[in-house]
Amino acid sequence: MKIRTILLISFLTTLLYVGCQSTKSVSTIISDKYDSPTNQTTFEKFPLGSVKIPGKWTKTSYNEVSRQHFFKNVDSVFVAIAINLNTHYPFFVKGMTDSASVIAFYEWDSKFLADQIKGTRTILKYDSINQSIIWHLTDKKEIDSYYLYGCDKGKIFGLFISTNKWNEAEKTNLLETIYKNRIAGN
Fold it and tell me: What number does CATH give the domain 3-20+31-184?
């Protein structure tokens, strides 16, 4: 995928989160580490949660506004990870369940992104047990992005993958694997 597309998606995501305000400030500690015996890269945003990515991934950048952490593997496949409180988003309503939070986050974020690129958003899978949605964003030019949004214990997990080297099944399988290997903080 062209670097321009990745930068465009990052910019659009930045614009999306500019209006997000927290009702409660939480200090976090960020770490990422590759563990060769398990062949996994762990990303942790303490105390909110963590995820494990199969394989070796190197952190390439961080977007302060969207709080997304971008990683790249040796094949130049890009993933982005954000773990934030659901209360940080304008759609949040007190007492909102994880299921309602992930649906609201999808409606709010995917509509914004699709409107920005005049693209199409398609839900590929909704998992009511794990409160997650896998969806696809595309336009008529070059954007072909896959996302998994989930909510666990009031923490929104936003996962993104960008590559032309993998098919849809490989992309969605990686997103599901990352989300299944999550730990939501208390």
Answer: 3.40.1000.10
